[in-house]
Amino acid sequence: MRLIEIIDKCFYKNGSIVSGKGQHNLVKQIEDLDNYPGKTFAEKVYLIKKGLTEIPSCPVCGKKLKYNNSLKYRTYCSNKCKSNSPEWKRNRTGMGFQSEDVQLKSRKSRLSKTGFEWAGQNPDTKRKIKETLEFKGREWRNSDESIAIATNRIESQGFRVLQTKIQDGETVYTVRCDKHDQEWEWDRRKCLRDGTQMYPICQKCHNEKTSRGEQEIQEYLETIYNGEIQRNNRKIIFPKEIDLYLPEFRLGIEYCGLYWHSDQFLGKNYHREKWELAQKNGIDLIQMFDNEWRDKKDICKSIIQNRLGLSQRLEARKCDIKEVEVQEARKFANNYHLQGFYPGVYIGLYFQGELVDLSIFCKCRFGKKYDWELTRHCIKAGYRVIGGLSREITFFRKNHVGSIVDYCDQRWFNGKGHWGFKEVGITPPDMQYTDYVTVIPRGKYQKKNMAKIPGFKFDPSLTQKENLLKNRMDYIYGVGHKIFVYE
Question: Sign of the CA dihedral 321, 325, 331, 334?
Fold first, then answer.
Protein backbone atom coordinates (compact mmCIF):
# COMPACT_ATOMS: atom_id res chain seq x y z
CA MET A 1 0.00 0.00 0.00
CA ARG A 2 1.37 3.43 -0.95
CA LEU A 3 2.35 5.86 1.81
CA ILE A 4 -0.21 8.46 0.68
CA GLU A 5 -3.02 5.91 1.01
CA ILE A 6 -1.87 4.97 4.51
CA ILE A 7 -1.73 8.63 5.48
CA ASP A 8 -5.27 9.20 4.18
CA LYS A 9 -6.45 6.41 6.48
CA CYS A 10 -5.12 8.38 9.44
CA PHE A 11 -7.90 10.93 9.02
CA TYR A 12 -11.65 10.61 9.59
CA LYS A 13 -14.01 12.18 7.07
CA ASN A 14 -14.35 15.28 9.23
CA GLY A 15 -10.57 15.81 9.10
CA SER A 16 -9.76 14.69 12.65
CA ILE A 17 -7.00 12.16 13.45
CA VAL A 18 -7.88 8.53 14.17
CA SER A 19 -7.24 7.37 17.71
CA GLY A 20 -7.03 4.22 19.80
CA LYS A 21 -6.44 0.85 18.13
CA GLY A 22 -6.68 2.28 14.62
CA GLN A 23 -3.84 4.67 15.37
CA HIS A 24 -1.74 1.85 16.88
CA ASN A 25 -2.09 -0.28 13.72
CA LEU A 26 -1.19 2.62 11.40
CA VAL A 27 1.94 3.47 13.37
CA LYS A 28 3.43 0.10 12.38
CA GLN A 29 2.91 0.83 8.67
CA ILE A 30 4.52 4.31 8.53
CA GLU A 31 8.29 4.15 8.84
CA ASP A 32 8.68 7.92 8.29
CA LEU A 33 7.20 8.59 11.74
CA ASP A 34 10.63 7.92 13.23
CA ASN A 35 11.95 11.03 11.47
CA TYR A 36 10.01 13.27 13.87
CA PRO A 37 11.07 12.30 17.42
CA GLY A 38 9.25 13.90 20.33
CA LYS A 39 6.14 14.79 18.28
CA THR A 40 2.62 13.48 18.69
CA PHE A 41 1.14 11.02 16.19
CA ALA A 42 -1.20 13.71 14.82
CA GLU A 43 1.64 16.17 14.24
CA LYS A 44 3.86 13.54 12.59
CA VAL A 45 1.07 12.49 10.20
CA TYR A 46 0.29 16.10 9.32
CA LEU A 47 3.96 16.85 8.54
CA ILE A 48 4.24 13.77 6.30
CA LYS A 49 1.00 14.58 4.48
CA LYS A 50 2.15 18.14 3.75
CA GLY A 51 5.63 16.99 2.74
CA LEU A 52 7.31 19.05 5.46
CA THR A 53 10.75 17.95 6.65
CA GLU A 54 10.89 20.33 9.61
CA ILE A 55 8.58 22.30 11.88
CA PRO A 56 7.39 25.59 10.28
CA SER A 57 8.76 28.80 11.81
CA CYS A 58 7.13 32.13 12.60
CA PRO A 59 7.98 34.55 9.73
CA VAL A 60 8.45 37.44 12.21
CA CYS A 61 10.53 36.10 15.12
CA GLY A 62 11.71 32.74 13.73
CA LYS A 63 10.35 30.62 16.61
CA LYS A 64 9.11 27.13 15.83
CA LEU A 65 5.31 27.04 15.58
CA LYS A 66 3.25 24.89 17.93
CA TYR A 67 0.90 22.26 16.51
CA ASN A 68 -2.81 22.36 17.30
CA ASN A 69 -5.16 19.49 16.42
CA SER A 70 -7.85 21.85 15.17
CA LEU A 71 -5.82 24.76 13.77
CA LYS A 72 -2.74 22.72 12.69
CA TYR A 73 0.10 25.26 12.41
CA ARG A 74 -0.77 28.93 12.75
CA THR A 75 0.96 31.40 10.45
CA TYR A 76 2.43 33.28 13.42
CA CYS A 77 3.56 32.10 16.86
CA SER A 78 1.59 34.80 18.70
CA ASN A 79 -0.80 37.68 18.16
CA LYS A 80 2.07 40.08 18.90
CA CYS A 81 4.06 38.72 15.93
CA LYS A 82 0.91 38.76 13.82
CA SER A 83 0.30 42.45 14.51
CA ASN A 84 3.98 43.23 13.74
CA SER A 85 3.93 41.40 10.41
CA PRO A 86 4.15 43.76 7.37
CA GLU A 87 2.12 41.29 5.29
CA TRP A 88 -0.71 41.20 7.85
CA LYS A 89 -0.70 44.99 8.04
CA ARG A 90 -0.95 45.22 4.25
CA ASN A 91 -3.86 42.80 4.14
CA ARG A 92 -5.56 44.67 6.97
CA THR A 93 -5.52 47.97 5.06
CA GLY A 94 -7.18 46.45 2.00
CA MET A 95 -4.55 48.00 -0.30
CA GLY A 96 -1.63 45.82 0.59
CA PHE A 97 -1.08 44.27 -2.83
CA GLN A 98 -1.50 47.49 -4.81
CA SER A 99 1.65 49.15 -6.06
CA GLU A 100 2.07 52.91 -5.78
CA ASP A 101 1.26 53.21 -9.51
CA VAL A 102 -2.03 51.33 -9.03
CA GLN A 103 -2.92 53.48 -6.02
CA LEU A 104 -2.15 56.64 -8.01
CA LYS A 105 -4.36 55.46 -10.90
CA SER A 106 -7.15 54.67 -8.43
CA ARG A 107 -7.00 58.17 -6.98
CA LYS A 108 -7.02 59.75 -10.46
CA SER A 109 -9.97 57.57 -11.44
CA ARG A 110 -11.94 58.61 -8.35
CA LEU A 111 -11.01 62.24 -8.94
CA SER A 112 -12.30 62.17 -12.53
CA LYS A 113 -15.54 60.38 -11.63
CA THR A 114 -16.47 62.04 -8.32
CA GLY A 115 -14.22 65.09 -8.04
CA PHE A 116 -12.51 63.64 -4.94
CA GLU A 117 -9.36 61.54 -4.51
CA TRP A 118 -10.83 59.67 -1.56
CA ALA A 119 -14.38 58.50 -0.99
CA GLY A 120 -14.25 59.97 2.50
CA GLN A 121 -13.83 63.46 1.05
CA ASN A 122 -17.20 63.32 -0.72
CA PRO A 123 -19.90 65.17 1.30
CA ASP A 124 -22.56 62.62 0.26
CA THR A 125 -20.36 59.76 1.42
CA LYS A 126 -19.64 61.59 4.68
CA ARG A 127 -23.34 62.07 5.28
CA LYS A 128 -24.14 58.39 4.67
CA ILE A 129 -21.28 57.21 6.89
CA LYS A 130 -22.33 59.62 9.62
CA GLU A 131 -25.96 58.45 9.48
CA THR A 132 -24.90 54.80 9.63
CA LEU A 133 -22.55 55.35 12.56
CA GLU A 134 -25.13 57.43 14.45
CA PHE A 135 -27.63 54.62 13.91
CA LYS A 136 -25.07 52.18 15.44
CA GLY A 137 -24.25 54.58 18.27
CA ARG A 138 -20.69 55.21 17.11
CA GLU A 139 -18.60 58.26 16.18
CA TRP A 140 -16.95 58.95 12.80
CA ARG A 141 -13.37 59.96 13.43
CA ASN A 142 -13.19 62.45 10.53
CA SER A 143 -16.52 64.19 11.16
CA ASP A 144 -16.56 67.89 11.98
CA GLU A 145 -17.71 67.10 15.51
CA SER A 146 -14.96 64.52 15.99
CA ILE A 147 -12.28 66.89 14.69
CA ALA A 148 -13.57 69.62 17.01
CA ILE A 149 -13.35 67.26 20.02
CA ALA A 150 -9.78 66.25 19.12
CA THR A 151 -8.81 69.89 18.60
CA ASN A 152 -10.14 70.83 22.03
CA ARG A 153 -8.17 67.99 23.60
CA ILE A 154 -4.96 69.09 21.90
CA GLU A 155 -5.47 72.68 23.00
CA SER A 156 -6.23 71.53 26.55
CA GLN A 157 -2.64 70.21 26.64
CA GLY A 158 -1.31 73.74 25.99
CA PHE A 159 -0.79 73.42 22.22
CA ARG A 160 -2.38 75.26 19.27
CA VAL A 161 -3.93 73.66 16.15
CA LEU A 162 -2.92 75.74 13.12
CA GLN A 163 -4.77 73.70 10.47
CA THR A 164 -6.28 70.28 9.69
CA LYS A 165 -6.31 68.18 6.50
CA ILE A 166 -7.37 64.70 5.36
CA GLN A 167 -4.42 62.53 4.36
CA ASP A 168 -4.72 58.82 3.49
CA GLY A 169 -8.15 58.76 5.08
CA GLU A 170 -6.95 60.22 8.39
CA THR A 171 -7.23 63.70 9.85
CA VAL A 172 -3.79 65.29 10.16
CA TYR A 173 -3.30 68.28 12.47
CA THR A 174 -0.60 70.93 12.24
CA VAL A 175 0.22 71.64 15.88
CA ARG A 176 2.37 74.30 17.53
CA CYS A 177 3.91 74.42 21.00
CA ASP A 178 4.53 78.08 21.84
CA LYS A 179 6.46 77.16 24.98
CA HIS A 180 9.23 75.43 23.02
CA ASP A 181 8.68 77.22 19.66
CA GLN A 182 8.05 73.99 17.70
CA GLU A 183 5.59 73.01 14.94
CA TRP A 184 4.83 69.51 13.66
CA GLU A 185 2.17 67.39 11.99
CA TRP A 186 0.23 64.92 14.09
CA ASP A 187 -2.56 62.48 13.18
CA ARG A 188 -5.47 61.52 15.38
CA ARG A 189 -4.51 57.85 15.52
CA LYS A 190 -2.05 58.86 18.23
CA CYS A 191 -4.85 59.49 20.72
CA LEU A 192 -4.59 57.45 23.92
CA ARG A 193 -6.91 54.47 23.94
CA ASP A 194 -8.97 55.81 26.81
CA GLY A 195 -10.18 58.64 24.57
CA THR A 196 -9.77 61.29 27.28
CA GLN A 197 -6.12 62.32 26.97
CA MET A 198 -3.59 62.83 24.20
CA TYR A 199 -0.12 61.51 23.71
CA PRO A 200 2.49 64.05 24.91
CA ILE A 201 3.11 65.09 21.31
CA CYS A 202 5.77 67.73 21.99
CA GLN A 203 8.90 65.75 22.88
CA LYS A 204 10.23 68.43 25.25
CA CYS A 205 6.87 68.67 27.01
CA HIS A 206 6.75 64.87 27.08
CA ASN A 207 10.08 64.69 28.88
CA GLU A 208 8.87 67.20 31.45
CA LYS A 209 5.59 65.35 32.02
CA THR A 210 7.08 61.89 32.36
CA SER A 211 9.50 63.11 35.03
CA ARG A 212 6.72 64.44 37.25
CA GLY A 213 6.33 61.29 39.35
CA GLU A 214 10.09 60.79 39.52
CA GLN A 215 10.48 64.40 40.62
CA GLU A 216 7.98 63.91 43.47
CA ILE A 217 9.85 60.82 44.67
CA GLN A 218 13.17 62.65 44.50
CA GLU A 219 11.73 65.57 46.45
CA TYR A 220 10.52 63.15 49.14
CA LEU A 221 13.94 61.44 49.30
CA GLU A 222 15.61 64.81 49.76
CA THR A 223 13.44 65.49 52.84
CA ILE A 224 14.58 62.32 54.62
CA TYR A 225 18.06 61.68 53.18
CA ASN A 226 21.07 63.96 52.69
CA GLY A 227 23.22 61.62 50.59
CA GLU A 228 23.77 61.46 46.82
CA ILE A 229 20.71 60.83 44.62
CA GLN A 230 21.45 60.12 40.95
CA ARG A 231 18.85 60.62 38.20
CA ASN A 232 18.56 58.46 35.07
CA ASN A 233 21.69 56.38 35.71
CA ARG A 234 22.56 54.25 32.64
CA LYS A 235 25.98 53.05 33.78
CA ILE A 236 25.18 50.78 36.73
CA ILE A 237 22.99 48.26 34.80
CA PHE A 238 23.93 49.26 31.24
CA PRO A 239 22.20 49.49 28.79
CA LYS A 240 19.08 49.86 30.98
CA GLU A 241 18.36 52.96 33.02
CA ILE A 242 17.53 53.46 36.70
CA ASP A 243 15.30 56.49 37.32
CA LEU A 244 16.61 57.21 40.84
CA TYR A 245 19.73 55.62 42.32
CA LEU A 246 21.18 55.94 45.83
CA PRO A 247 24.82 54.74 45.69
CA GLU A 248 25.22 54.57 49.50
CA PHE A 249 22.47 51.94 49.80
CA ARG A 250 22.87 50.50 46.27
CA LEU A 251 19.12 51.11 45.98
CA GLY A 252 17.36 51.91 42.70
CA ILE A 253 13.80 53.21 42.34
CA GLU A 254 11.85 52.92 39.09
CA TYR A 255 8.67 54.90 38.40
CA CYS A 256 6.65 52.92 35.83
CA GLY A 257 3.73 54.49 33.95
CA LEU A 258 0.97 51.94 33.37
CA TYR A 259 0.47 52.82 29.68
CA TRP A 260 4.10 52.75 28.55
CA HIS A 261 4.92 49.72 30.73
CA SER A 262 1.98 47.62 29.49
CA ASP A 263 2.41 44.45 27.42
CA GLN A 264 1.96 46.12 24.02
CA PHE A 265 5.10 48.22 24.56
CA LEU A 266 7.41 46.24 26.86
CA GLY A 267 6.16 42.66 26.75
CA LYS A 268 6.14 40.04 29.47
CA ASN A 269 9.75 39.90 30.67
CA TYR A 270 10.89 43.56 30.74
CA HIS A 271 10.56 44.12 34.51
CA ARG A 272 11.93 40.64 35.31
CA GLU A 273 15.00 41.12 33.09
CA LYS A 274 15.69 44.54 34.59
CA TRP A 275 15.41 43.09 38.10
CA GLU A 276 17.76 40.22 37.20
CA LEU A 277 20.29 42.66 35.74
CA ALA A 278 20.12 44.72 38.93
CA GLN A 279 20.59 41.58 41.06
CA LYS A 280 23.72 40.64 39.12
CA ASN A 281 25.17 44.06 39.87
CA GLY A 282 24.22 43.97 43.56
CA ILE A 283 21.45 46.55 43.19
CA ASP A 284 18.26 46.44 45.26
CA LEU A 285 15.62 47.63 42.76
CA ILE A 286 12.11 48.90 43.51
CA GLN A 287 9.79 49.09 40.48
CA MET A 288 6.59 50.93 41.43
CA PHE A 289 3.63 51.57 39.12
CA ASP A 290 2.39 55.14 38.81
CA ASN A 291 -1.03 54.30 40.32
CA GLU A 292 0.67 53.02 43.49
CA TRP A 293 2.48 56.33 44.00
CA ARG A 294 -0.64 58.30 43.08
CA ASP A 295 -3.18 56.37 45.19
CA LYS A 296 -1.05 54.99 48.09
CA LYS A 297 1.72 57.53 48.37
CA ASP A 298 2.04 57.26 52.15
CA ILE A 299 2.55 53.48 51.96
CA CYS A 300 5.17 53.89 49.21
CA LYS A 301 6.99 56.50 51.32
CA SER A 302 6.93 54.20 54.35
CA ILE A 303 8.43 51.30 52.36
CA ILE A 304 11.21 53.53 50.99
CA GLN A 305 11.90 54.95 54.46
CA ASN A 306 12.16 51.41 55.89
CA ARG A 307 14.49 50.35 53.07
CA LEU A 308 16.82 53.23 53.99
CA GLY A 309 16.72 52.25 57.67
CA LEU A 310 15.31 55.64 58.67
CA SER A 311 12.16 54.45 60.48
CA GLN A 312 11.81 54.36 64.26
CA ARG A 313 13.22 51.05 65.50
CA LEU A 314 11.07 48.86 67.75
CA GLU A 315 11.94 45.43 69.14
CA ALA A 316 9.22 42.80 68.92
CA ARG A 317 10.03 41.44 72.39
CA LYS A 318 9.00 44.78 73.89
CA CYS A 319 5.56 44.60 72.25
CA ASP A 320 2.40 42.80 73.33
CA ILE A 321 1.09 40.14 70.95
CA LYS A 322 -2.47 38.89 70.46
CA GLU A 323 -5.13 38.12 67.86
CA VAL A 324 -6.60 41.25 66.28
CA GLU A 325 -10.29 41.94 65.79
CA VAL A 326 -11.36 41.86 62.13
CA GLN A 327 -12.48 45.52 62.06
CA GLU A 328 -9.13 46.74 63.39
CA ALA A 329 -7.21 44.40 61.07
CA ARG A 330 -9.19 45.62 58.05
CA LYS A 331 -8.49 49.27 58.82
CA PHE A 332 -4.80 48.65 59.53
CA ALA A 333 -4.20 46.57 56.35
CA ASN A 334 -6.02 49.07 54.14
CA ASN A 335 -3.90 51.88 55.59
CA TYR A 336 -0.49 50.21 55.49
CA HIS A 337 -0.49 47.46 52.82
CA LEU A 338 -0.38 48.12 49.06
CA GLN A 339 -2.93 45.37 48.36
CA GLY A 340 -5.18 46.19 51.28
CA PHE A 341 -7.14 43.80 53.51
CA TYR A 342 -7.52 40.03 53.07
CA PRO A 343 -9.64 37.77 55.36
CA GLY A 344 -7.96 35.18 57.55
CA VAL A 345 -6.35 34.84 60.99
CA TYR A 346 -5.02 38.18 62.29
CA ILE A 347 -1.98 38.31 64.60
CA GLY A 348 -0.70 41.72 65.72
CA LEU A 349 1.97 43.39 67.85
CA TYR A 350 0.98 46.29 70.09
CA PHE A 351 3.37 48.95 71.41
CA GLN A 352 1.97 50.99 74.29
CA GLY A 353 -1.53 49.86 73.35
CA GLU A 354 -1.20 50.78 69.65
CA LEU A 355 -1.14 48.22 66.82
CA VAL A 356 2.19 48.57 64.99
CA ASP A 357 2.65 45.24 63.16
CA LEU A 358 0.10 42.88 61.58
CA SER A 359 0.31 39.46 59.90
CA ILE A 360 -2.66 37.80 58.17
CA PHE A 361 -2.71 34.03 57.56
CA CYS A 362 -5.21 32.01 55.53
CA LYS A 363 -5.50 28.51 54.13
CA CYS A 364 -3.16 28.15 51.16
CA ARG A 365 -4.86 29.58 48.06
CA PHE A 366 -2.74 27.83 45.41
CA GLY A 367 -2.78 24.04 45.63
CA LYS A 368 -2.46 21.71 48.60
CA LYS A 369 1.32 21.51 48.86
CA TYR A 370 1.34 23.88 51.84
CA ASP A 371 -1.14 24.24 54.69
CA TRP A 372 -1.15 27.99 55.33
CA GLU A 373 -0.25 31.16 53.47
CA LEU A 374 1.03 34.45 54.84
CA THR A 375 -1.10 36.75 52.68
CA ARG A 376 -0.31 40.08 54.35
CA HIS A 377 2.41 41.51 56.59
CA CYS A 378 2.39 45.24 57.19
CA ILE A 379 3.91 47.72 59.63
CA LYS A 380 2.63 51.08 60.80
CA ALA A 381 4.18 53.95 58.82
CA GLY A 382 7.30 55.33 60.42
CA TYR A 383 8.14 52.15 62.37
CA ARG A 384 10.49 49.22 61.85
CA VAL A 385 9.69 46.24 64.08
CA ILE A 386 12.72 44.00 64.55
CA GLY A 387 11.71 40.31 64.78
CA GLY A 388 8.02 41.14 64.37
CA LEU A 389 7.20 38.57 61.69
CA SER A 390 9.13 35.80 63.48
CA ARG A 391 7.27 36.40 66.73
CA GLU A 392 3.86 36.51 64.98
CA ILE A 393 4.53 33.19 63.26
CA THR A 394 5.56 31.56 66.55
CA PHE A 395 2.33 32.82 68.16
CA PHE A 396 0.24 31.65 65.18
CA ARG A 397 1.69 28.11 65.25
CA LYS A 398 0.62 27.59 68.87
CA ASN A 399 -2.94 27.04 67.63
CA HIS A 400 -2.42 26.27 63.92
CA VAL A 401 -0.19 23.43 62.75
CA GLY A 402 1.30 22.92 59.31
CA SER A 403 3.65 24.58 56.85
CA ILE A 404 3.40 28.28 55.90
CA VAL A 405 4.19 29.71 52.46
CA ASP A 406 4.78 33.35 51.58
CA TYR A 407 4.97 34.84 48.08
CA CYS A 408 7.23 37.90 48.27
CA ASP A 409 6.70 40.44 45.46
CA GLN A 410 10.13 41.17 43.98
CA ARG A 411 8.89 44.36 42.36
CA TRP A 412 8.87 45.91 45.84
CA PHE A 413 10.69 43.68 48.34
CA ASN A 414 13.89 41.65 48.56
CA GLY A 415 12.72 39.02 51.08
CA LYS A 416 15.55 39.62 53.55
CA GLY A 417 13.21 39.71 56.56
CA HIS A 418 12.10 36.08 56.23
CA TRP A 419 13.99 34.67 59.23
CA GLY A 420 13.28 30.95 59.67
CA PHE A 421 11.90 30.61 56.13
CA LYS A 422 13.50 28.62 53.34
CA GLU A 423 13.58 30.07 49.84
CA VAL A 424 12.35 27.40 47.42
CA GLY A 425 11.94 29.24 44.13
CA ILE A 426 10.48 32.17 42.22
CA THR A 427 7.31 32.41 40.15
CA PRO A 428 7.19 33.61 36.52
CA PRO A 429 6.41 37.32 35.98
CA ASP A 430 2.96 37.98 37.46
CA MET A 431 0.31 39.16 35.03
CA GLN A 432 -2.51 41.59 35.83
CA TYR A 433 -4.78 43.83 33.76
CA THR A 434 -4.64 47.59 33.40
CA ASP A 435 -6.97 50.22 32.00
CA TYR A 436 -3.98 52.63 32.11
CA VAL A 437 -5.44 54.26 35.22
CA THR A 438 -5.17 51.43 37.72
CA VAL A 439 -4.14 47.76 37.98
CA ILE A 440 -6.86 45.08 38.07
CA PRO A 441 -6.35 41.54 39.49
CA ARG A 442 -6.06 38.85 36.83
CA GLY A 443 -9.18 36.86 37.77
CA LYS A 444 -11.75 39.45 36.67
CA TYR A 445 -11.07 39.70 32.93
CA GLN A 446 -10.62 36.05 32.00
CA LYS A 447 -12.27 35.46 28.63
CA LYS A 448 -14.96 33.25 30.14
CA ASN A 449 -16.03 36.16 32.38
CA MET A 450 -15.88 39.00 29.85
CA ALA A 451 -19.45 38.67 28.59
CA LYS A 452 -20.76 39.10 32.16
CA ILE A 453 -18.87 42.34 32.90
CA PRO A 454 -21.17 45.41 32.66
CA GLY A 455 -20.04 47.88 30.00
CA PHE A 456 -17.38 45.56 28.57
CA LYS A 457 -17.68 45.15 24.78
CA PHE A 458 -17.05 41.43 24.32
CA ASP A 459 -16.50 39.77 20.94
CA PRO A 460 -16.31 35.94 21.21
CA SER A 461 -14.47 35.73 17.87
CA LEU A 462 -11.52 37.70 19.28
CA THR A 463 -8.81 36.49 21.64
CA GLN A 464 -8.65 37.69 25.24
CA LYS A 465 -5.83 40.09 24.31
CA GLU A 466 -7.75 41.53 21.35
CA ASN A 467 -10.85 42.01 23.50
CA LEU A 468 -8.79 43.88 26.10
CA LEU A 469 -7.23 46.20 23.50
CA LYS A 470 -10.65 46.82 21.98
CA ASN A 471 -11.83 47.97 25.43
CA ARG A 472 -8.76 50.22 25.97
CA MET A 473 -7.07 47.74 28.30
CA ASP A 474 -4.00 45.51 28.26
CA TYR A 475 -1.87 43.09 30.25
CA ILE A 476 0.83 44.41 32.55
CA TYR A 477 3.55 42.22 34.05
CA GLY A 478 5.55 42.42 37.23
CA VAL A 479 8.79 40.74 38.26
CA GLY A 480 7.45 37.61 39.96
CA HIS A 481 7.32 36.42 43.57
CA LYS A 482 10.00 34.62 45.55
CA ILE A 483 8.54 31.61 47.37
CA PHE A 484 9.45 31.23 51.06
CA VAL A 485 8.37 28.23 53.16
CA TYR A 486 8.29 27.89 56.95
CA GLU A 487 8.09 24.23 57.94
Answer: positive
